[in-house]
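Same chain as my last thread, 320 residues:
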Amino acid sequence: MPRKLISFDWAIKKILRSKANFGILEGFLSELLFTEIHILEVLESESNQDKGFDKYNRVDIKVIDANQQIIIIEIQYLRELDYLQRILFASSKTISEHLMEGAAYAEVSKVISVNILYFDFGKGDDYIYHGTTNFMGMHNHSILELSEDQRKLYKVEKIADIYPEYYLIEVKNFNNIAKDSLDEWIYFLKNEQIKEDFTARGLRQAKETLDVLKMNEQERSAYEYHQEQLHYEASIYESSYIAAKLEGKAEGKAEGKAEGKAEGKAEGKAEGKAEGILIGEDRGIEKGILITAKNMKQAGIPAATIAEVTGLSIAQIELL
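reply #2:
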C-alpha cells in the first residue's frame, strides 16, 4: 500500500515555494503542458495573500518560467457557480500586475491558469479540460492567423499563444486508472499516494519530500487541523447549498402564486440559491475558522502557527 503523502494544496502553500523543491512543480507542469518547464521564481502579489478571511485570496501559487510565461495554480474544494468568471478575473489581474506602466501592449505576459478542482463543475465526462482563445471567420470558419511581422513582434506563432490559457482538472472525474504519466499525477492529486511503478516527472521527488512521516510534531498538528478544516468547510458548504436549494423552491412557489407559476419558480430558485449559498458559505467558513483556531489554542499550539494555518491575526487569536 503506497504511503500517504501531504496534500498538494498544503504542499503548494508551505513546501513547494522553496527553490529546492521547484522540481516537483516543474514535473507536474511539464507533464500537464507537454513541454519542459523550468521555474525561475515564485511571484508574490495581492493574489497570493495568505489570509483566511480574504475573499479574494484565490491564487495558491504563481510562478514564472524560463520563457517568461506566468503560471498560476489554484486548488479549489468548494463549489462556486461563478468559478469561470473568477479565474478570468485572476488571469486578467495577473496580466495587469505584470505590465509596467508605459510599456507597449506587445509586452503583455502570457498567463496559464491551472485549476485543480475537487468538486463537480459543469457537465462533462472528462477530467482535464483545456481552453484557449482563437478567432474564427463567421462565413468560411477559417482561423485568423498572425502576419510574419506580428510573429516577430510578439515572439509567438499563433494568436492563442498571446491570450491566457486555462486548464480545469476535475479530480473527482478521474477513474484511478493511470494510462500515462499525466494520469499518474492526477492519481496523486486525487489519492495523495504515489505507486511504486509511477515514473512521471517530479513524482519521485514528491514522494520523498511530501512524506507525512517526515513532519515534526508541530507541523503534523498544523497539517491535521488544516485537513479537518477542509472537511468542516465542505460539510458546512454542502449544508448551506442544500438549504439554499430548498429555500429557493419555497420562494419560487410563493411568488409563483402571485406572478405566475413558471416565472415564480425560476426567479425564486435563482435568487434563493445564490443568496443562500453566499451567506451560508461566508458564515460557515468564518465560524469554522474560529472554531479551528480555538481548538488549536486549547491544544497548546503556538499562536504564530495558528495564525499561519487560519489566517487570523495574533490579536484575534488572543481573544479566543
